[in-house]
């Protein structure tokens, strides 16, 4: 016989949500309704779980992780929903049920889907996924000026909503490399603060420099060209402070590129916290690469330019929840990888905001006619982000934004000759260490 769940625990912190257009109670009611159209109306960065009778409804944007685990008890199953694996594990220890736990037994709620779980056990139920966010593709013209203006206007609109939620005496930071994404977020925030009559002295761009990494020089050049150097603070961190094993614990993952980025984010956020014990609000450019499909296709043997351009939100969601390649434990794409910026920031008590990862901004990006603009040429695709964003920044803020050659965060923060000294030889090494945490 099926035994209905009488025990349900949510460890999700509703205070970590950033919801612009309704109260948390209204957003929770939208999720509890089971109506994906109602969930799509939630504007912001969120992770929400609600139980209604025998059903549990879960939904999240890219900006926040959410996991669940179903444990067995004599009295019936126990469903636990949390942000992190270790939160689930520690709760199970309190109930003396931790012997059932393994990281691969947890399930991540995929971003942009309303997940319904029938809370019955023996056998465990399968979740039902219903997409609540499905942007229309190829709806924008091929005019790069028009695309850029629409894209950055939408980014600015989301950033303005965020700024208006921040107390006027609180400073605002940007995790800044001088690249296209962090650079555009900084310039939009600076422009908005002037427009809204806020003091721009509250704003600061933090750049990580490990033993003289290249990003420091790039960040200086970016700011110097715009006459904004007084807003830049280069944060120096010694190579000895770079610890990928600590980053594995923080992001609870072992995927090489995301782990490398998270290791640097952890070092940067940790040092900022030492320098500024009371700083709360931080923004970043995470999601910009995914939106404009700006990743080297050749480094992933599973990808071709046709798969990248033909699949809706491939870099944000992976292959999709209905595909064989979809991981239940980690989901896919940025849905998995956004933890690289979120978790380090959260560990050090920052309220992190990633405007490029918001549905309204992604919706504009997915409307770009990539095929018509690139004619399936990879080099044209890689150049597209700089064109779109710089034109949009010019139209919205008036700044001629410098555009440098793409470089990953982890590659710019530390000198090339020191990279191998702080990271493992392969993903196998990372995975082995992660699994040892629960051995």
Q: Which labels suit this protein?
A:
439 residues, alpha/beta, Glutamine Phosphoribosylpyrophosphate, subunit 1, domain 1, Rossmann fold, 2 domains, 16% strand, disordered N terminus
Textual characterization of the structure:
InterPro entries: Asn_synthase, Rossmann-like_a/b/a_fold. It comes from Parafilimonas terrae. Pfam families: Asn_synthase. This protein is of the alpha/beta class. It folds into 2 domains: 3-131, Aminohydrolase, N-terminal nucleophile (Ntn) domain (Glutamine Phosphoribosylpyrophosphate, subunit 1, domain 1, 4-Layer Sandwich), CATH 3.60.20.10; 144-436, HUPs (Rossmann fold, 3-Layer(aba) Sandwich), CATH 3.40.50. 42% of the residues lie in helices and 16% in strands. Strand 5 and strand 6 form a beta hairpin. It is globular. The model is unreliable at 1-5 (pLDDT under 50).
Summarize the entry for a quick read.
Pfam families: Asn_synthase. The chain is an alpha/beta fold and 439 residues long.
Q: Could you name the CATH class of the largest domain? A: Alpha Beta
Q: Say what the CATH topology of the largest domain is.
A: Rossmann fold
Number of domains: 2
* Largest β-sheet summary: 5 strands, parallel
Number of strands: 17
Distance between the termini: 33 Å
Q: Report the principal-axis shape.
A: globular
CATH superfamily of the largest domain: HUPs
DSSP strand content: 15-25%
CATH architecture of the largest domain, by name, is 3-Layer(aba) Sandwich
Structural class: alpha/beta
Pfam family, one: Asn_synthase
GO biological process, one term: asparagine biosynthetic process
Protein name: Asparagine synthase (Glutamine-hydrolysing)
GO molecular function: asparagine synthase (glutamine-hydrolyzing) activity
